[in-house]
Amino acid sequence: MSKVLFIRQENYEQTGIDAAILRAFEHFGGARNFISKGDRVLLKVNLVSGHDPERRVTTDPSIVRSVAKIVIESGGTPFIADSPGIDSFKNAAEKAGFMNIARELGIECHELADPVNLPVNDDADFRRIQVSRDVLESDKVINLAKLKTHGQMYLTMGVKNLFGCVPGRLKAGWHYNVGLNREKFASLLLDIYLGVKPSFTILDGVIGMHGDGPTSGDPYEFGIIGACVDALSMDFSLCKMLGGKLEDYPLYMAAKKRNLPQCESFASEIEGDIDSSHIFPGVKIPKTRSMRLMPNIPFFDRLMTSKPVHIPEKCIGCGRCAEICAAGALRHENKHLYFDYAKCIRCYCCHEMCPVKAIKFKESFLVKLVNMIS
């Protein structure tokens, strides 16, 4: 079983980041254990949408720069890529600081596009998943994730970051097809992760996000960088460290259903500056649905799941929420949103893509009840 390394890192000062990233690679045998001369290496960043680094929505540029330089020094050719949900890639990557790194180091930075079928395991729940051709044609994938909470999936870390390998609007289609069943969506994430097989995962948890993540929450100074070959063990460990409940974490429940060994042994795999008993104080994780209350039946799911609601005084009328809604459950008129909750699949993409936090979660009665007794 793969080990998980946590390194204390309190800020994004480049010298400190460089030392931490070098330590991470050396802990696992050195960069050349992952990168061979001539390798084309995809640096899969977290670029859900265009935000300044200070918002802590995206992978910090200092980490991307450090990893890219190590790949170059090891004889590889890195390129930075992701597929934002709705924004123009060029504009989003410029705002997040990735284009500047590409210019500085003379490397590519482009969108993950051109969908092709992903080879999946025999036990995969989903037989036909399309990811960007760049993912399959790269010699290595290094996964550069961000530590954040997530309204739909509880947390987004190493495994969830690879959903960005699915090009553009195909992601919205998956949200619609999977619907309200979060464990089924988590199973899709597992299939993508096991199919992509990233060589190495580095998690930016120096300053992450809690509350209404993955884009509308608040910065939280976790002060760590995570590194691993197996992101499942890291994600499960962090769920506990963040004060979360594994039975409320859809990714863990989907992995447990498959009897994956990481579900049993993750706590013993922690090395570095903190151990599995560490708890980050006061982390707010969205409790938009109880995974345990009722079976995944659409009628019950809508009763037990928080719904997105509009905050008119914050709205700027950009219309991104209605544009991203795969279910066609939103109508936007003159800075007013009209939700058709019978159609709404509670994917919270509208909340995720709102640039001004004008959509929030309204807890259902059953969610409030479960949260009170949990």
Description:
This protein is of the alpha/beta class. The chain has 2 domains: 4-272, Rossmann fold (3-Layer(aba) Sandwich); 298-373, Alpha-Beta Plaits. It is 32% helix and 21% strand. Strands 1, 2, 3, 4, 7, 8, 9, 10, 11 and 12 form a 10-stranded mixed sheet that branches. Strands 5-6 form a two-stranded antiparallel ribbon. The chain has a two-stranded antiparallel sheet with strand order 13-16. Helix 1 (14-27) crosses helix 2 and helix 7 packs across helix 9. The model has no long low-confidence stretch (mean pLDDT 91).
Brief summary:
The chain has helices spanning 14-27, 61-73, 89-96, 98-105, 133-137, 170-178, 182-196, 231-241, 250-257, 262-265, 298-304, 320-324, 349-353, 365-373; strands at 4-8, 40-44, 77-82, 108-111, 115-117, 130-132, 140-150, 154-156, 200-210, 218-220, 224-228, 270-272, 307-310, 330-333, 336-339, 359-362.
What's the layout of helices and strands?
Layout: E1 4-8, H1 14-27, E2 40-44, H2 61-73, E3 77-82, H3 89-96, H4 98-105, E4 108-111, E5 115-117, E6 130-132, H5 133-137, E7 140-150, E8 154-156, H6 170-178, H7 182-196, E9 200-210, E10 218-220, E11 224-228, H8 231-241, H9 250-257, H10 262-265, E12 270-272, H11 298-304, E13 307-310, H12 320-324, E14 330-333, E15 336-339, H13 349-353, E16 359-362, H14 365-373
Parallel strand pairs: 1-12, 2-3, 2-7, 3-4, 7-9
Antiparallel strand pairs: 1-11, 5-6, 7-8, 9-10, 9-11, 13-16, 14-15
Helix pairs in contact: 1-2, 7-9
